[in-house]
Write a structure and sequence with these properties.
- By secondary structure, the chain is mainly α.
- Among the domains are: 63-142, Cytochrome Bc1 Complex, Chain D, domain 2 (Orthogonal Bundle); 154-242, Cytochrome Bc1 Complex, Chain D, domain 2.
- It has helices at 15-54, 63-78, 97-107, 120-126, 131-142, 157-166, 177-180, 199-210, 221-226, 231-242.
- It starts with 14 loop residues before the first helix and ends with a helix.
């Protein structure tokens, strides 16, 4: 009988075989870790995708619902299709839906009864409507065709064109076209469509920005522009914009 102490000693592997075995072990371990990392990454990616797809799509508004509101509430001032018959009220037809929604929210008072834009008529008119209804209205008006306008004062046409296209570098007045585009088509959310808008409305808004009576412009951008303009320049550029298409 062989006792444990009498067992033959185990000979260590040759050094070259030890290195080979070590390399093989680490290579296999590396492949295993890489596989686990890939599996975890795929699982996390799938979970994130499932979370994103589970989120409901943002409501963009129903034009048909908006039309129903426009034909009963907005028609007197803005026209059922957004082509206001009154030069003091803006044309809404063809305006960017995101911009229209932004302005309606600005007119609506918050819990403290304060609103970004102050206008006795609009503050009251928008009060009953929630955000979905505002988006319905925005979708309706954005889908309408604006009937356009025209410049009426030939004597100031050249000045209006110069200010709109090039501004006045001498007093740091930027070109309107830089933000609102060469044809006044604007940029959704931030910069509204101006082309074809009523001259009277444009003039009123520019003066409101100049006097800080309207302050819902991002970073006071329009206030800083309008404060550099005279009454004559405001009138000239507003008339020129009315004729843009």
């Amino acid at each position: 009988m062989i006792r444990p102490n009498d067992a033959a000693p185990v000979s260590p592997l040759p050094r070259s075989m030890q290195k080979s075995a070590c390399k093989a072990f680490h290579a296999k371990l590396g492949r295993t870790v890489a596989t686990l990392v890939s599996v975890v990454a795929l699982a996390l990616g799938a979970a994130a995708h499932a979370s994103e797809t589970a989120k409901p799509a943002a409501y963009v508004g129903d034009p048909a619902k908006g039309k129903a509101i426009a034909e009963t509430v907005c028609i007197a001032c803005h026209g059922a299709d957004g082509n206001s018959p009154l030069p003091a009220n803006p044309k809404l037809a063809g305006q960017h839906a995101s911009y229209l929604f932004k302005q309606m929210k600005a007119f609506k008072a918050d819990a403290q009864g304060k609103s970004e834009r102050v206008n006795a008529i609009m503050n009251g008119m928008i009060a009953p409507f929630g955000e979905e209804q505002m988006k319905d209205l925005a979708a309706h008006f954005a889908g309408q065709k604006q009937n356009g306008g025209e410049a009426k004062n030939r004597a100031t046409l050249a000045l209006g064109q110069k200010l709109y296209r090039a501004g006045d570098a001498g007093k740091g007045l930027p070109a309107c076209a830089g933000c609102h585009g060469p044809t006044g088509s604007g940029l959704p959310v931030q910069f509204p469509r101006l082309g074809g808008q009523h001259t009277e409305y444009l003039e009123t808004q520019l003066k409101a920005f100049r006097n800080s009576e309207r302050t819902n412009d991002p970073n006071k951008m329009m206030q800083m522009v309008a404060v550099k303009m005279t009454d004559a320049e405001i009138r000239a550029v507003a008339d020129y914009i009315a004729g843009l298409h």
